[in-house]
Amino acid sequence: MEPYRPRRSVLYVPASNEKALAKIAQLACDAVIIDLEDAVAPADKIAAREKLAGILANRPDADHNGRRCEMVVRVNALSSEWGADDLAAVAKAEPDGILLPKVDTPRDVLEVGDVLDDNFAPDSVKLWAMIETPKAMLNIGAIAELGRDPASRLDCFIAGTNDLIKDTGVLATPDRAYLLPWLMQMLLAARAGGLDMLDGVFNDFRDPDAFARECAQAAAMGFDGKTLIHPSQIEAANRAFAPSAQALAEARAVKDAFALAQNSGKGVIALNGRMVERLHLAQAEKLLAKAAAIGA
Ligand SMILES: CC(C)(COP(=O)(O)OP(=O)(O)OC[C@H]1O[C@@H](n2cnc3c(N)ncnc32)[C@H](O)[C@@H]1OP(=O)(O)O)[C@@H](O)C(=O)NCCC(=O)NCCSC(=O)C[C@H](O)C(=O)O
Ligand SMILES: [Mg+2]
After folding, report:
1. Is the CB of residue 233 below 6 angstroms from any atom belonging to ligand 1?
2. Which end of the chain, N or C, is surrounded by fewer C-beta atoms within 10 Å?
3. Count: domains in the chain
4. Per-residue confidence (pLDDT) for residue 60, from 0 to 100
């Protein structure tokens, strides 16, 4: 199993915005998505693409936790007039990952994987997929299944809630009532495929309280992190998707209890009036490893 890699806070930075690009090295987000798609106007697409190699060459080595911020590039859809040239440019720039927008079917992922195989070892550049179309929702299990084959490179799903709202006509409400069934379905499929699952963006970036509520909701739903549009959202996301102090204390108690000599051969024990099994020990160890990785 690969070691835990935090993706609590994943910030979109438009490839056409010099001021925003210059900020990346100072930001405490776990990953950055350099966007060539929706954040870049058609007239700026080619110039933005030409800057990619320079942006990735100047990537920060490590953040304040001694980790390197993951750098992912979102290309335009292969079916668009920019997609093929984006992919050729990104392949040369060697990001950690390539984010594919508007994925509808497993084929959309496999096609890009075939192009990457000409340039990179299978365990290098990963593929991330935006789940943001009605067709993707109907094919979600088959797309996620690709994650079980490392040769597919598929590593992470991102919910594209703006596009889903646009394409389905559901009402966007503060509690996301009409989106929740799809978000949970994505989460379930991602887990079946061994993929990370990131929540969509929160557009009202001047409303930190509502943002914190949406992060808490996504964390409770099991998401690994949230995609962000503004640096002011990073800290709250890092907090919301880190294990809580209470969860860590409980995990330590489970680990300590199973470490006792009298429990060494047991599959199930009682701890503070609660049944605890070895599956809970595995869960506790995973949480503690996650906390160690993020320095929590
Ligand atoms: C949303 C914004 C347009 C707001 O911009 P602005 O009003 O300029 O913000 P501020 O003045 O508050 O900015 C303060 C400083 O922070 C820098 N900044 C702002 N945003 C970013 C960023 N994303 N990354 C890095 N740095 C950023 C500004 O440059 C200011 O710097 P300084 O002046 O030096 O102090 C803007 O935040 C923005 O463009 N955000 C990203 C938008 C984006 O990428 N959208 C596409 C992805 S979301 C999506 O596509 C959804 C999905 O597909 C779906 O379907 O749901
Ligand atoms: Mg979108």
Report:
1. no
2. N
3. 2
4. 73
